[in-house]
Design a protein that fits this description.
Elements (H helix, E strand, L loop, with lengths): L3 H4 L9 E4 L1 E5 L2 H12 L4 H15 L9 E8 L4 E7 L32 H12 L9 H9 L1 E2 L2 H9 L1 H4 L3 H7 L11 E2 L2 H13 L8 H13 L14 E3 L2 E5 L2 E5 L6 H14 L10 H17 L13 H4 L2 H12 L8 H7 L17 H6 L5 E6 L5 E7 L9 E2 L2 E2 L30 E6 L2 E7 L4 H13 L5 H6 L11 E5 L4 H9 L3 E5 L10 E5 L5 E5 L6 E5 L1
Parallel strand pairs: 16-17
Antiparallel strand pairs: 1-19, 2-10, 2-20, 3-4, 3-11, 4-7, 5-6, 8-9, 9-14, 10-11, 12-13, 14-15, 15-18, 18-19
Helix pairs in contact: 2-3, 3-5, 5-9, 11-12, 11-14, 11-17, 12-19, 15-19
């Protein structure tokens, strides 16, 4: 018997699993159920991820959709090779950015997004063509069922939907999708969409091409033209997903496999961990003022220097220089020079009121509700290991997909927050033929003695949270659960203040103040600070999985 309450998960403590032959961690109970059912039916990790992503876009329209970005990191057991796929939305190089929505005070519309060509379905098509084993139509059935029957709305989803209504209901099509019958779906009710189910039936019957060069694609182009964005059907497939050789680098006795350019996460992780290594992080106490001082500065420099990255198809960006150990050593020297010779606690106390951050965070110990309403939601991570030893990390996200605020045949879209002339920043692209987006998407594999030990990834301030969790695991030797749960920070601000989840000791606050660093607080488990989905292997070769308490994740496996 269908029990909606089973699927209505919310942020809070999560159970890990161990001793399994196949495992999955996702941020939704329905998705984890679909992934494991696909594995049990004989599918591999790629099949399970495709089915899971299709369902995720149907049951988490506040986090992802069927037009957004797909990013993949995959370890093929048969060859031992690692593969990266970049399938973000793309921009026709012959057209200026098209922004059909107005600026809102918060959320997705705070920086009005631009329209782009969808990346989700081309990405899943590419994954299925290279690694899939089950029939495509089989992988669509759960998504069709949930779109048709509806999924139960949790309080987490209700809050996320409510915070984005100014943007998502800007057009009548959005109002009909997100407010069926004129009202938002309330907690515990079923939220589905018959038009989405019908579109997904076509996707099952005709293949992913239905949304690339078929009937849905034609409707998308017609809608864009009607709104004033003069794209053509040729634009829908002009810039296909790109397979890339992942970035690999050593860290202590481990090897890390991360995302190569144009993604910035691999270089960012290499830089941050390299700087921290030269600062002697392993000799510091975890969570101490010295630890957070070093981490805050390393994250700040990493973000800045990633502005020198971009798509190798556009220019000869010097990735090797950013990963150079001597460069990391020099940056560590700069950070050491920032440690004051005087006790600056009184300076911090006297000047605190003059250091309000422009991003809206509260003062120490006072989490600000305002900042929560200002940050957009979005993105889902899948972590899967199958019984054959295929390891997979995939992000699917509403970011960089389709026409902002529009819904076409039951498929909602939010567009892209990419900049077009940025240096440092989360998303940037140049309008050049074949160019792909530089983004902060982040997932990684950690190898020990050449074999995968951890697979991990997260949405939510990805760029700065991945180095913290990886460091917790590798530098401090924390357990999987402790590494995920530990308080997270944003990079040190230009006002010399750290924003941290509100679980830091008084001694650490005082120690940072003595070094001249003020603090602002986020909620103790801030859902914007990530939702790590992680799979891991124990010494006996058995598999485990864990989920982050900051969101609604579920980890489970097959015996």
């Amino acid at each position: 018997m269908f029990d909606p309450s089973y699927y209505m998960r919310n942020p809070g403590p999560k159970e890990s699993v161990r001793g399994k032959r196949a495992v999955c961690s996702s941020d939704n109970a329905i998705v984890t159920e679909t992934v494991l059912a696909t594995l049990a039916a004989g599918g591999n990790a790629a099949d399970a991820a495709i089915a899971g992503a299709m369902v995720q876009a149907a049951v988490e329209p506040f986090m992802t959709n069927h037009t957004g970005t797909v990013s993949l990191l995959y370890r093929a057991a048969a060859t031992g090779r690692y593969h990266q796929l970049h399938s973000a939305g793309t921009f026709p190089p012959h057209l200026p950015p098209f922004r059909p929505t107005r600026k809102t005070d918060s959320g997705l519309g705070r920086m009005p997004p631009s329209a782009c060509i969808p990346g989700f379905m081309p990405g899943l098509q590419a994954i299925h063509q290279r690694f899939g084993t089950l029939p495509w139509a089989d992988l669509c059935q759960d998504a069709i069922r949930w779109a048709e029957t509806g999924h139960p709305v949790s309080s987490f989803e209700y809050g996320a939907l409510l915070g984005e209504l100014d943007f998502t209901t800007y057009f009548p099509e959005g109002r009909r999708f997100y407010m069926p019958g004129g009202h938002m779906p309330t907690v515990g009710t079923l939220f589905g969409n018959a038009a989405m189910a019908d579109t997904l039936r076509h996707v099952a019957d005709e293949g992913p091409g239905y949304m690339i060069e078929g009937g849905w694609a034609a409707a998308f182009v017609a809608t864009a033209n009607r709104m004033g964005w003069p794209i053509s059907m040729a634009d829908m497939s002009a810039n296909p997903p790109r397979w890339i050789e992942p970035l690999r680098f050593a860290h202590g006795r481990f090897e890390i496999v991360g995302l190569s350019a144009p993604e910035q996460q691999g270089v960012f992780l290499s830089m941050t961990l390299g700087i921290l290594d030269h600062l002697g992080l392993r000799s510091m106490e975890h969570g101490s003022a010295e630890h957070l001082f070093a981490m805050g500065h390393a994250l700040r420099l990493g973000l800045y220097f990633c502005g020198f990255l971009g798509d190798p198809a556009v220019g000869p960006y010097d990735t090797d220089q950013l990963r150079d150990g001597d460069f990391h050593r020099a940056l560590a020297r700069l950070i050491r020079g920032m440690r004051p010779a005087h006790d600056l606690a009184n300076h911090v106390r006297l000047t605190e009121s003059a250091s309000f951050r422009s991003d809206g965070h509260g003062l120490p110990g006072i989490p600000s509700c305002e900042i929560q309403s200002r940050q957009p939601s979005g993105s889902c991570e899948l972590s899967i290991v199958d019984a054959d030893g295929n390891w997979l990390q995939m992000m699917n996200t509403l970011q960089s997909g389709g026409i902002p605020g529009m819904v076409v045949d039951g498929i909602p879209m939010i567009g892209s927050h990419a900049t077009f002339a940025g240096v440092s920043g989360h998303f940037d692209i140049k309008l050049v033929e074949g160019a792909r987006l530089r983004s902060i998407v982040g997932h990684s594999f950690i190898l020990k003695e050449g074999a995968p030990l951890y697979g991990l990834g997260t949405p939510g301030n990805v760029y700065c949270t991945v180095p913290q969790v990886v460091s917790n695991l590798l530098d401090f030797g924390l357990s999987v659960e402790a590494a995920i749960e530990a308080p997270r920070i944003l990079p040190l601000g230009e006002d010399n203040r750290l924003i941290i989840e509100d679980r830091v000791s008084a001694a650490t606050v005082q120690g940072l103040a003595r070094m001249g660093v003020g603090m602002s607080a986020m909620p103790a488990y801030d859902w914007h600070m990530g939702s790590f989905q992680m799979c891991f292997r124990d010494d006996a070769g058995f598999l485990g999985a864990a989920a982050d308490p900051r969101r609604c994740g579920v980890a489970d496996g097959l015996n």
